[in-house]
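Question (not urgent): is this output format expected?
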Amino acid sequence: MSRGGAAVRVVAPARRLRGELTVPGDKSITHRGLLLGALGSGRSRLRGPGLGADTRASAALVRALGARTAMDDGALTVDGVGLHGAAEPADVLDCANSGTTMRLACGLLAGRPLHAVLSGDASLRARPMRRITRPLRAMGARVDGRADGALAPLALAPSRLRGADLTVPVASAQVTSALALAALRADGPSTIRQPAPSRDHTERMLRAQGARVQTDGAVLRCEPAEALDPVDLDVPGDLSSAAFWIAAAALHPDAEVTIRGVGLNPLRTGLLDALRAMQADLEVEVEREEPEPVGAVTVRSSRLRGLHAGGALIPRLIDEAPLLALLAAAAQGESRIADAAELRVKESDRLRATERLLGALGLEVEAAPDGFTVAGGGRAAGARVDAGGDHRMAMLAAAAALSADGPVTIHGADAAAVSYPAFWDDLERLRA
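Got this back:
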């Protein structure tokens, strides 16, 4: 069982894990549905949205730009301002802890005849923003911030955008999405080149809204648009939330867990591919392909083997890389996870945070400049750990605790609500 107040949870090992779950609506898709819905002409509907703290920041931002949002029989509705509309915000736009909100909103606001300032909490103000401000400036946007646009707050002033051929340094859906949103209002076509493909939710949604957006591997081409149709979408379950139960079941000696209605976008399923390489007992059933693949994932207790993971796989599991380190710590043989330096600039330095948290549980995980080296063959011990304000670290600790050899006390457990408000209730449902 787990017990304790919201900020501190004590999670005892589970005798076994059994059951079926649905997880919150995909956070990445909900963000985009709000922002792109605000650009649509008419009313957008997102059925089954993910409504954590991050997506609430996006909802508040689009309202500040003149859009209206409401919940209607389980659906989130957005009455848009149109592609070329948007009220000048009367105050600073607070993105809270949401990098997706800030980066995509920067692209949405670039090139408009208005002034706007985007800010957020201390963590967000420390995260790298030059990756969007530099290419937006190359398109003609007037955008600035601390350290010459490297850090928020970010300020945008009236400007006109031109089409451009852009090469970005990281495979980041937040970056490509910000530039795609700006490209819709440019004076000609734009090309965005990234080092590897990143999740393509924005491109899929824009095409459904009538925009001319093409992808060719890691290259994205966007045409200017006069208008966008509203968004109408059943939001799939968030695979990044489901990943905690997937990992917990694979690690536990007596487990069978099914997550239904989960998103299976191939640019998000890197963890599933890594688990297959580790010889996990895993079944995936795709039930719908468009506009986003959706289906069910079943995981049973598994005897895992170590792996070496890197390259193009990593952008497809970047949020799940700490979980992969946990899985590798229990696998037979040494593992190496490389090309994941992006984890250093998330809500926390997740390379260092993962090393500290799993190390406190007695697992041999060593952070490298761009990933982890993991000894393997371990089992988590009961301990006290601190999530450090990072929702994924809180849930990582809980996933490890379910098969640990003693209770794990998690300080800062309330951070899970950022992306998964019902996480602790679902944990109890899986205990048999």
